[in-house]
Amino acid sequence: MKKNSVLLITIVLSSICFLSVKRPALFAADPAFIVPKGWPKPVFDFKKNKITEKGFILGRTLFYDPILSKDSTISCASCHLQYTGFAHTDHAVSHGIDSRLGTRNAKALINLAWSKLLHWDGGVINVASQPINPITNPLEMDESLTHVLRKLNASKKYRALFFETYRDSTITTSKLLKSLTQFTVSLVSSNSKFDQVMRHEKNVFLTDQEQKGFDLFKKNCVSCHTDPLFTNNDFADNGLPIDKDYKDYGRVSITQNPKDSFHFSVPTLRNIEFTYPYMHDGRFTKLMEVLNFYTDGKVERKTLARELQQPIQLSANEKKDLIAFLLTLTDKAFLFNPKFSFQKDNNL
User: Fold this and answer.
1) Whole-angstrom Cα distance, residue 72 to residue 77?
2) Cα(241)–Cα(263) distance, integer angstroms
3) Residue 269, exposed/middle/buried by CB under 10 A (0-12, 13-18, 19+)?
4) Residue 99: left (phi > 0), alpha (psi -120 to 50), or beta?
5) Rounded distance, CA 260 to CA 237, Å?
6) How far apart are the first and last CA of the chain?
7) Are the beta carbons of 237 and 301 closer than 8 angstroms?
8) Alpha-carbon distances, residue 269 vs 79, 273, 279 (angstroms)
9) Once rounded to an integer, what is the mean pLDDT over residues 193-199?
10) pLDDT at residue 23 above 50?
11) Percent of residues, the chain, with pLDDT higher than 90
12) Closest C-alpha to 96, from 63, 153, 136, 132
């Protein structure tokens, strides 16, 4: 029995060592945020909310706990599943308590430290305040911050966790948001096949088809989906016809500027293979449908993005090549990283 235990420990340690060599570490001795080499500087202010091991664990615990919703049935993870890039693939739009339907598709939570504005319309200006929206939205968690704090302060588990993190067991809105943010800004995806090729890792190359797709991507897509983030973090009218159910005009509802009509945030394409359905209303479920829309379905109007005013011409084979490239943006080390998963024992 001892022999088997020693062997098992050796195998586990060897696997951990192999994985740590194979992919860039997100955490060192503690969950310090590491900017991938060659990436731009994050816009998130880490001086105001430094990531700590205890803060990260507390944020992760809260992220997976339905206690944040009115009837304790919906957690953040209910609409942001790790294995789908922290997006929501079961429904076109988000689902809240009592199966209430939201009005937009739940966006993927990927590389938020580089996001200047959040949500499809940019209505949230800081990732640190973002959780307030789903918690208080009547179509999502339908809860009040006052009641959330009351529930958390009544919990021995959470009072202990907050004390460990902040040396104070009194739970406040500020501490709640700081904790959730420490987890969500740590969701960095930077180890796809594309990343490995760009890092010139040994024996990792794009296939001929993937390279053809990459060339097509650079010609037709890169101005909006700029690498390495694969978004320019801007808003644009991509020519999508108005949806019949919600008649959502996008960013204009925030700015009240008619020029922002039909403008929605440019989503990241990282892990796009798993973050369907696509568009703000989740109308497309397959990448081929998206490409068909861009070649044949765009609506010509005054607010249409300048980059899309010229027709995009892709043959059937070229669309397949482009999709082959998009699949190289899948980061399985991110999608299945146990540090981002629900942990019953709250350990890293």
Assistant:
1) 13
2) 12
3) buried
4) left
5) 8
6) 27
7) yes
8) 18, 9, 12
9) 98
10) no
11) 86
12) 136
Decide: residue 15, CB within 10 A, 0-12 exposed, 13-18 middle, 19+ buried: exposed
Give me the mean pLDDT over the 301-305 stretch: 97
Rounded CA separation 127/281 (Å): 22
Please answer whether residues 266 and 232 qualify as being in contact, where contact means their C-beta atoms are separated by less than 8 angstroms: yes
Residue 41 CA, distance from chain mean position? 18
Asked whether 178 and 190 are in contact (CB, 8 A), the reply is no
User: Which residues fall within 8 angstroms of residue 310, CB to CB, at 6 or more apart?
Assistant: none
Biggest alpha carbon–alpha carbon distance for the chain? 73
Share of the chain above pLDDT 70, in %: 90
Predicted TM-score (pTM) of the model is 0.88
Q: How confident is the model at residue 290 (pLDDT cuts 50, 70, 90)?
A: very high
**In terms of Cα–Cα distance, which of 285, 317, 313, 286 is closest to 298?**
313
Query: In this structure, are residues 127 and 112 in contact, taking their beta carbons and an 8 Å threshold?
Result: yes
Mean pLDDT of 210-215: 98
Under 8 Å between Cβ of 127 and 185: yes
CB distance 101 to 93 below 8 Å:
yes
Question: What per-residue confidence (pLDDT) applies to 31?
Answer: 58
Kindly calculate the radius of gyration of the chain based on its CA atoms and give it in whole angstroms. Answer: 21
User: E strands, the chain, where?
Assistant: 235-236, 264-265
DSSP letter assigned to residue 259: G
φ/ψ (deg, to 5) at 257: -100, 115
